[in-house]
C-alpha cells in the first residue's frame, strides 16, 4: 500500500501551491538533509521532467531548499528559503535537465561540505508524499514515513545477521528491510532497515562497532 | 479494521454498524498505535486550517497569486450573491463555489492549506463541508467526521488508482477530491455508507477523462475554477445519492476506469503544461509573460 494513513490523504498542512511540486519537494529536501546529517555548504539540485519544466511557478526550488534548511511543509519560512540559504552561506545551484526520468517529478541533490558529500535522488509521488530512490549510487525505496537505518557494509555473509541480532537484543522490530548493491564484486552494499521503534544512540553505537559495518545513517 | 476497496469499506461499516468515519478513525488508531484523542485532534486541527483559509480568501483585500493569474474571484461570487439579483444556480451552490475558490486562491498565493488529497484540489472538501455544516446546522464534530469519511474514500482511490495530476490527470486530483467530498457530505446529511459510496461513484464518473493542463504549469488556471465546479458537483452528487440514485457502474469499477484512463493519457496532459489549455495561444502568451521565456 502506497498510502497508509488517513493523513496521507487529508494532509499535509502545507504552504501552497502544489502538493507534489511544493510539499513533496520540501520533503525530498529534508530527507536529503537528514541523510547528509548536517547542513551542507554547497547543494547542486538537478530537476527532471515536470519538476524541470514548471519549478519556478510552483516554488519547487524554494521548497527543496526550505527542506534542506530543515523547514517543514507548513513552515512559512519556506517562502523566503532562497534568501535564508544565501544568508546562512549555503550555496545553491539549479540545473534543469531535459533527460526523461522514470518518474515525472524527480530531483537529484548533491550535498557537499569539507567533510564529505551525499547524492540523493527523490521522487514526489503525489499528495505531498515522496520517496528516496537513490543514495550515493545505491538504488533503494525510502518513504521517510517510518524511522530507518541506512547501513553501509562489506558485501559479505553474516553482516546482515549481525545487525539483526543487535536489533533483536534491543527489542526493536523490523518493519521492512532491503539490501542494495551496485554490482557484485564492488564489495560494498547498503542495508536499509525500517523499524517500528526508533533506534537510540546506544544501539546505533553497537551497530557501528560491528565487523563489516562501514557507516550508519539514521533517518527518523 | 482493514479495507482496501470501497466495497470492503462499506461492508465493514455495515457489518459493524458503524459510520464510515468511525471505521477510518479506528483503523488509524490501530495502524499507528495512537489514541482516539490524538487522531481526532489532528484532524480537528486540519479543519481549523481549512476554516482560516476560507476566511482569508473571502476577506483579504487584494489577494493575488505571485503570477497574477488568480485571486479575488471568490469575493466576486460573494458580492454577486449579496447584490440579491436572480441567481441561476442558487445561493447554496454559489456559497460552496465561493468557499472552494477561496481556499484554492489562498493556495495559489502560497498560503497555508491542507492538501485534500493534493494542494491543487484543496478547495473542494473545505468548501463543501463548511457549506453543508451551515445548511445542516452540523457541529464541529460532524465536520471532523466528514474529513475522516473523505480520507477513507481517498485512501481507497489512492491505493487503487492515483491522486495526482502528474500521475493521472486532473480526474485523479480534482476528480478524486470531488468524489471523496461527495461521500463525506452524504454522511453529514445522515446518509448510509452505501449512499456515500454511490455519491463518490456519481461524482467521479463526471470527472473521468479530465486532463491536467495548467497554464504555465501553475496551480491556478484552470485549477481554481475546477475547484469551484468540483464543489458544485460534489454537492449535487451527494443530493442525488441521498435521493436514492445509484451509479450503474459500481464505485470501485469507476475508480478502476479512472486508473486506466489516466494510464492511457499522454504525458502532455499530465501537469507538464505542454497540452490542453496550457498550449492554447493565450496559455502560451501568459506563460511567456510570467517566465519571460517558453518553458
Ligand atoms: S489542472 Fe492539474 S494542476 Fe490544476 S488542479 Fe487539475 S490536476 Fe491540479
From TrEMBL, chain A:
Span of domain ACT: 148-220
Superkingdom of the source species: Bacteria
Family matches, as PROSITE patterns: ACT
GO molecular function, one term: metal ion binding
Reaction(s) catalysed by this chain's protein: L-serine = pyruvate + NH4(+)
Cofactor(s) annotated in UniProt: [4Fe-4S] cluster
Keywords associated with the record: 4Fe-4S, Gluconeogenesis, Iron, Iron-sulfur, Lyase, Metal-binding
GO biological process: gluconeogenesis
Pathway listed: Carbohydrate biosynthesis; gluconeogenesis
Pfam families (alphabetical): ACT, SDH_beta
InterPro entries from the UniProt entry: ACT-like_dom_sf, ACT_dom, ASB_dom_sf, Fe-S_L-Ser, Fe-S_L-Ser_bsu, Ser_deHydtase_bsu
NCBIfam families, per database record: sda_beta
Family to which the UniProt record says this protein belongs: Belongs to the iron-sulfur dependent L-serine dehydratase family.
Protein name, as recorded: L-serine deaminase
UniProtKB/TrEMBL annotation, chain B:
E.C. number(s) listed in UniProt: 4.3.1.17
Any Pfam family hit: SDH_alpha
Catalytic activity field: L-serine = pyruvate + NH4(+)
Cofactor(s) needed by this chain: [4Fe-4S] cluster
Family annotation (InterPro entries): Fe-S_L-Ser (IPR051318), Ser_deHydtase-like_asu (IPR005130), Ser_deHydtase_asu (IPR004642)
GO biological process: gluconeogenesis
Domain (Serine dehydratase-like alpha subunit): residue spans on this chain: 16-278
Pathway field: Carbohydrate biosynthesis; gluconeogenesis
Record key words, sorted: 4Fe-4S, Gluconeogenesis, Iron, Iron-sulfur, Lyase, Metal-binding
A single GO molecular function term of this UniProt record: metal ion binding
Family classification: Belongs to the iron-sulfur dependent L-serine dehydratase family.
Record-linked PANTHER family: L-SERINE DEHYDRATASE, L-SERINE DEHYDRATASE 1
Protein name: L-serine dehydratase
Organism (species): Marininema halotolerans
Amino acid at each position: 500500500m502506497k498510502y497508509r494513513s488517513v493523513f496521507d490523504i487529508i494532509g499535509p498542512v502545507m504552504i501552497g501551491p502544489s502538493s507534489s511540486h511544493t510539499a513533496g519537494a520540501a520533503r525530498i529536501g529534508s530527507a536529503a538533509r537528514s541523510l547528509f546529517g548536517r547542513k551542507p555548504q554547497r547543494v547542486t539540485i538537478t530537476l527532471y521532467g515536470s519538476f524541470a519544466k514548471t519549478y519556478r511557478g510552483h516554488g519547487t526550488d524554494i521548497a527543496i531548499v526550505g527542506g534542506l534548511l530543515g523547514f517543514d511543509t507548513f513552515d512559512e519560512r519556506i517562502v523566503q528559503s532562497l534568501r535564508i540559504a544565501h544568508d546562512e552561506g549555503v550555496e545553491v545551484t539549479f540545473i534543469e535537465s531535459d533527460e526523461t526520468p522514470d518518474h515525472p517529478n524527480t530531483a537529484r541533490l548533491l550535498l557537499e561540505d569539507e567533510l564529505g558529500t551525499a547524492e540523493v535522488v527523490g521522487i514526489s509521488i503525489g499528495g505531498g508524499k515522496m520517496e528516496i530512490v537513490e543514495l550515493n549510487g545505491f538504488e533503494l525505496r525510502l518513504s521517510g514515513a517510518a524511522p530507518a537505518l541506512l547501513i553501509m557494509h562489506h558485501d559479505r555473509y553474516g553482516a546482515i545477521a549481525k545487525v539483526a541480532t543487535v536489533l533483536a537484543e534491543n527489542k526493536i522490530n523490523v518493519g521492512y528491510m532491503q539490501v542494495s548493491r551496485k554490482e557484485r564484486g564492488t564489495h560494498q552494499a547498503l542495508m536499509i532497515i525500517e523499524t517500528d521503534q526508533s533506534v537510540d544512540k546506544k544501539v546505533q553505537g553497537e551497530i557501528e562497532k560491528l565487523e563489516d559495518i562501514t557507516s550508519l545513517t539514521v533517518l527518523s | 479494521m482493514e479495507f482496501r476497496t470501497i466495497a470492503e469499506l462499506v461492508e465493514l461499516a455495515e457489518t459493524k454498524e458503524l459510520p464510515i468515519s468511525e471505521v477510518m478513525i479506528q483503523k488509524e488508531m490501530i495502524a499507528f498505535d495512537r489514541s482516539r484523542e490524538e487522531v481526532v485532534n489532528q484532524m480537528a486541527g486540519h479543519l481549523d486550517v481549512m476554516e482560516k483559509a476560507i476566511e482569508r480568501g473571502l476577506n483579504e483585500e487584494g489577494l493575488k497569486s505571485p503570477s497574477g493569474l488568480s485571486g479575488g474571484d471568490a469575493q466576486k461570487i460573494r458580492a454577486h450573491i449579496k447584490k440579491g439579483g436572480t441567481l441561476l444556480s442558487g445561493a447554496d451552490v454559489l456559497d460552496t463555489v465561493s468557499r472552494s475558490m477561496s481556499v484554492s486562491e489562498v493556495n495559489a498565493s502560497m498560503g497555508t492549506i491542507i492538501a485534500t488529497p493534493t494542494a491543487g484540489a484543496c478547495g473542494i472538501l473545505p468548501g463543501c463541508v463548511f457549506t453543508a455544516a451551515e445548511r445542516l446546522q452540523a457541529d464541529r464534530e460532524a465536520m471532523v467526521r466528514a474529513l475522516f469519511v473523505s480520507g477513507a474514500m481517498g485512501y481507497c482511490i489512492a491505493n487503487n488508482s492515483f491522486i495526482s495530476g502528474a500521475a493521472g490527470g486532473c480526474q485523479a486530483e480534482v476528480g478524486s477530491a470531488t468524489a471523496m467530498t461527495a461521500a463525506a457530505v452524504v454522511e453529514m446529511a445522515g446518509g448510509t455508507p452505501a449512499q456515500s459510496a454511490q455519491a463518490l461513484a456519481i461524482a467521479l464518473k463526471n470527472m473521468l477523462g479530465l486532463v491536467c493542463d495548467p497554464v504555465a504549469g501553475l496551480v491556478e488556471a484552470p485549477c481554481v475554477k475546477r475547484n469551484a465546479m468540483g464543489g458544485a458537483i460534489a454537492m449535487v452528487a451527494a443530493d442525488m445519492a441521498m435521493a436514492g440514485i445509484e451509479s450503474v457502474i459500481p464505485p470501485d469499477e469507476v475508480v478502476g476506469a479512472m486508473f486506466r484512463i489516466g494510464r492511457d493519457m499522454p504525458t502532455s496532459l499530465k501537469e507538464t503544461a505542454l497540452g490542453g489549455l496550457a498550449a492554447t495561444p493565450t496559455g502560451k502568451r501568459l506563460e511567456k509573460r510570467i517566465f519571460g521565456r517558453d518553458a
